[in-house]
Records
---
Amino acid sequence: MKVKLFALIDCSSFYCSCERVFRPELKDRSICVLSNNDGCVISLTPEVKSLGISIGTPFFKVKDIMVKNKVAVFSSNYCLYGDMSRRVMQTIKKFSDNVEVYSIDEAFIELEADDEDIEDERIRLQKLAKDIYHTVMKGTGIPVRVSIAETKTLAKLGSDVTKKLLREKKIPAVCFWNYPDKLLSMKTTPIGDVWGIGRGFGDKLQSIGINTAHNLAEADAKVIGKKYNIVLQKTTLELQGVVCNPIESGHAQRKSLVRSRSFGLKLNDSKLILQALSTHIARGAEKLRQEKLVTGVLSVEISTGRHSQNKIFGTASIELSKPTNDTLVLSKIAADLFKKCYVKKNQKGEDYQYVKAGAVFHDLKKDDTITHSFFDFINTEKNEIMDTLDKINKKFGNNAIVVASQGTPDRLRGNSAANKKESTKWSMKRNHMSPRYTTVWKELMKVRIG
DNA sequence: TCTGGGGTCCTAGGACCC
DNA sequence: TCTGGGGTCCTAGGACCC
């Protein structure tokens, strides 16, 4: 009988690998990539991990170790990673008609096996896994890990085996379906490492003696479901080989969209914070227009650092009388919302030091589902303005035209000291940026011949 | 000095209705 | 004075993921 299987294809240290593709001299160098604002480590190669550094570590805490060990450090370059991701996913589509792009660096694909001839089939799939590795490597230069199993959760678990193979410098591809050491793997996987089980439930499960993936697989899914919730029940079943999460290949309609950033430094000046917020509104609205969506509920957030002594989190939201993706309309509303949540001083009279602003667009709908009033001429006219704005920004680069509340773009500023001082104070720190090799002409790689 | 950004799903509890 | 029971919808917040 034919059985359906799932392959998980997971790019190894994806952001680091993207940087390496265009800098072959870094082939054997340890690399790490930082989050926006050069805040935390978000991607690292195994050698960096062996220095005791893990994902999420604040950069300033490990900067010295990095320098000492000659780690190549990069600011995140999402233009490059997004484009490389698209190439990887295109390549993967050769192997199955049913592909789910799960994240920027992961995809699940559906495969089939004949369970009447298990040993031959396992060998065939093992070869296929390696073939996927080689094909993606050849087509994109990105190394992937491939794990094949009965369910997504088991494929995730099998992916730990591929990490081990990688450490041993072998091809990181494994057929976890009928894998000889499957039981051992399950017994040595801590419960907190199972996909879908985080700190919260990990601790709870351990308190009732479920310490490993194997322990949970041995449990009664119904009992788990009753004691905790349906999500854990499904995870339990998936570990037992029962499919609860099928491939979701359709492009799921986005439900919300967030645009937020930490500032390059602390701010108290409401004018500058509002400029940052307006920029997020403009970027978000542009993204909505690209995806042909409109938002029904807008909220804004401003906050001081989590670790600040004098902290505050301000948020305000509003249901729009008419869903929209018009930057001008949304900017005005955002400015009103900002007034509602901006507080300058605390009760002791000390200034709050804000470090982050953001806009959240909720209740998204396709823009053609909005019924326009017969006499809604203004609306049509506004859309033309937005179309034009998008075209100009596309042709001449982002921020060719901005809304006044975003502040004056740098290129239009004079060189006076005062102007320099104000110059996009809130823009983020990116001190280790690589070129956008694949998406911007003037940043294209130059090769000298001869 | 310095701690990311962007998502989804589920659940409990309140509001409201009959 | 007595003060039901069942249902739906919405929302905030928790938990998790990459």
---
Amino acid sequence: MSVTLRDVARLSGVSVSTTSRALNDRLDVSEAVRARVLKAAQELNYTVNHQARVLKGAASKTLGLILYNTESLTFNAVMTRGIYDLATPNGYSVIVCNSNAGAEMELQAHQMLRQNRVDGMLINSVESGPASLEYLLDNQIPFVLLNRRVPGIECDYVVVDYQQGEYLAARHLLELGHRRILCQLGIPSHPPTIARLAGYRRALEEFGVEFAQELVVHASNAANSYHPVLNAMRQIQPRPTAILAYNDETTIPVLKALSDLGLHIPKDVSVVGQNDLSFAPFLIPPLTSVAQSIHEMGRLGMEILLQKITHQHPESWGWQQIVLAPTLNIRQSTAPPHSV
Amino acid sequence: MSVTLRDVARLSGVSVSTTSRALNDRLDVSEAVRARVLKAAQELNYTVNHQARVLKGAASKTLGLILYNTESLTFNAVMTRGIYDLATPNGYSVIVCNSNAGAEMELQAHQMLRQNRVDGMLINSVESGPASLEYLLDNQIPFVLLNRRVPGIECDYVVVDYQQGEYLAARHLLELGHRRILCQLGIPSHPPTIARLAGYRRALEEFGVEFAQELVVHASNAANSYHPVLNAMRQIQPRPTAILAYNDETTIPVLKALSDLGLHIPKDVSVVGQNDLSFAPFLIPPLTSVAQSIHEMGRLGMEILLQKITHQHPESWGWQQIVLAPTLNIRQSTAPPHSV
DNA sequence: TTGAAAGCGTTACCAA
DNA sequence: TTGGTAACGCTTTCAA
């Protein structure tokens, strides 16, 4: 079927082993032979068979990436960019799998990557519990968790801090004088939602403000923020004076809901987003938003993974457990409450 | 290092070949033996070595995906979702590569995927010219172009029709009575920009409106639409009465620029977006936008690729060349020009 | 500097 | 129904 080393060897009139050495830039090949081999290889359009190499014992030069795939569209896009930026230049292929937030597909992904003998993995989905990760640890397959932690599993991870982000946002509003702050979240069991809620409550506590369940709006899909927020702002009395949106994308429907209720931002209601996407400064009014280093998280995760793969002293290393601190970018969507 | 078939054979007390047959659900294995083998495999936590299988002649069950990676964040995210949705369930791994809009990285990606003996490829980046594609054709490696066509290369492709989309948007504005329509585009050489420009001009011609170069705003990065559009709307006389934004994402800064100029939408200026992202109905005012079937494009491309890989009659097939028609969703951001 | 041969893990063929 | 053996394409060791 495809051109093999034997074909190249035959054409260049030398043995297979010499051909291999010539193509792999070994020193112990005469220039004359090397030139002949290279020419033959080019002529035949030869490409080394990667599977054969790996079977022979070489590193697979392949990494696995398991995505959760139910985050916001931009989240995945931004994170994977950080990852790819380092993969190809370093000669690594990346096999991307999606769990679609399901344990079954996630296990299938692990299975696939295991069969492919990947050199390492980046994991953004841990729905199936710790077993898969324990297997990786036991078999010394390097991996880095992205935006996830698993209780009871000691390993490398890089996370952005949604808890702290929500805390910063809430504190900012509290400092401005807001006391009734609507908090828009996703599915209660989703780790980023759990983290946000904790940050929100931490800020409230710090300011001695009592937590009210009615001020938390959970939506099965955080993107559908229009109706939940519209209803909440219509019904809750006294009306919240500020909103913590799940992220910048969901802020757009939130702004629309407020506009449809005839509420002015920030005069009547303050709004804070999260992720500080590139469009945040261009919303009307420019959105106060918490910047999370998502691209950085992807890039750093990949960097750590590559280090672990190349440096062969896993024992001498501690775990790299990195929490990327968010920053609050204050713009014009937040102000003291009107009534104050 | 890792557990092999020999280890399983040894533990279950049968030969390697019988072990292989037992694990591969062959019929000619006694139930007693099969049970013993399965138990041993489980006990040892055996996973088949995919590279060995492929070397032996099996299909690699791996697909390659080459992304351009300079499109809008959402474009890649939406398209790849359509792709992944079919990959894992069908047992295919996807190796994702990025060209970053560069010919060199694109060639490197081709090289990588070739070495990995992928069963097929989905390609959204053709910066390096037709040579790579010709190689695939010559070697009967199935591939499908996504959102790209290459002059002189006959092959399968699925594209969304940005030309038609821009045409529909422009026609809508022309029908409303607009004659001075600002057209926001990206790098002149980028295929989607070329297509959009052609659609714009086609609509103008059809309405007998002369094309004016000053009404076309090229930006190196289409996302930075604020200043180019602000300046254009400030300087061009008479002022355009409508804007064709590059896509929905760039619409956000466009709306801001108009707002900062004190221009009202749609009274003073009409705006049309493209892609009809989920947030389009929630912009203020709700955005008239051209819906492009990007998710469908990814999914369909994958479907065609899988068909080509499984059905082994490439000759009897014609090329599948699919152009997904856009539709215009009219909302409140467009109206007849104020002056009419 | 070159070549022969072994072996990576698997499957398939052929014999038993 | 089972087992031995060869072969996939490559790299590496050892000998020449």
